[in-house]
Amino acid sequence: MPVNPTIFLGKQREVGITEGVGVITSSDRTGLESGQEVPQSVYEASTTQVHEIGTKLAEFNTGREFIYAQAGAVQLDLAEMTVGIAPVDGHRETVQTGHTWAIGDLESTVLTTAAVTADQYKDGWMVVNKGTGISQAYPIATNTAHATTPTVTLKAGHPIVLAVPATAEITLVQTPFLGTIIAPTATVTSSPAGIPLITVAASSFYWSCVKGPAPWLVDTGDTLLIGNDVSIGITAAGTCSIMTTLKSQLGKVLTVAIAAEPALVYLNLGY
Q1: Topology of domain 89-173, per CATH?
Q2: What is the per-residue pLDDT across 171-180, written as a single tens digit (0 to 9) for each?
Q3: CB-based contacts of 187, cutoff 8 Å, min separation 6
């Protein structure tokens, strides 16, 4: 079983949709049966979670890819780039004094210097960044709430492969697709999390476009030309502008567009 399942749409491999939208033609890794509709389309937000956060949806007939996400406490607007929640300093590079993991473990406690809320790191990662066990990253299924010693449960099939002693350092990494917000114009402190094709109410679940053609609003004062490389805008939140030094390229412009109007951008966020 993969860390997060993938749903394939289109005529490719053993799974997908033929000419119809949202109908599985054979069983796939999510356990959907032949003829069953894929729950929740890319044009629908829901207050009910129907997929794991991080599930990927691939449309072979459009070249687009989406990742299942949940909005944070503020509404998301269509055609605006989102990002994940900023990391917590007290949850990174913490020496695990008094706390260890043995080979084969799927659950144990970790030491932090700031409080952790329940399932704050669900579908995220536990990274060993120093000491024995260094350079291993483990997917998190759940975590408990605690001021300094939450219990972390790893996803099935991903047990500890190198023992983690009390002298090691651990960093907890939240998935960028949980609690997404509109990308700020200041320094981005979390990874880009894609663009919703619809308006998404606070705390709702939706599909976020991370690859392929997607509308993206243009930043104030900018005019984009076909072929321009773009990154997150510097004036208006959630917008795109021509890539500058120290900015990451997130897509390539497919249509000419002016400020406050959407350009069609071929996204490639690397997920």
Answers
A1: Elongation Factor Tu (Ef-tu); domain 3 (2.40.30)
A2: 999 999 999 9
A3: none
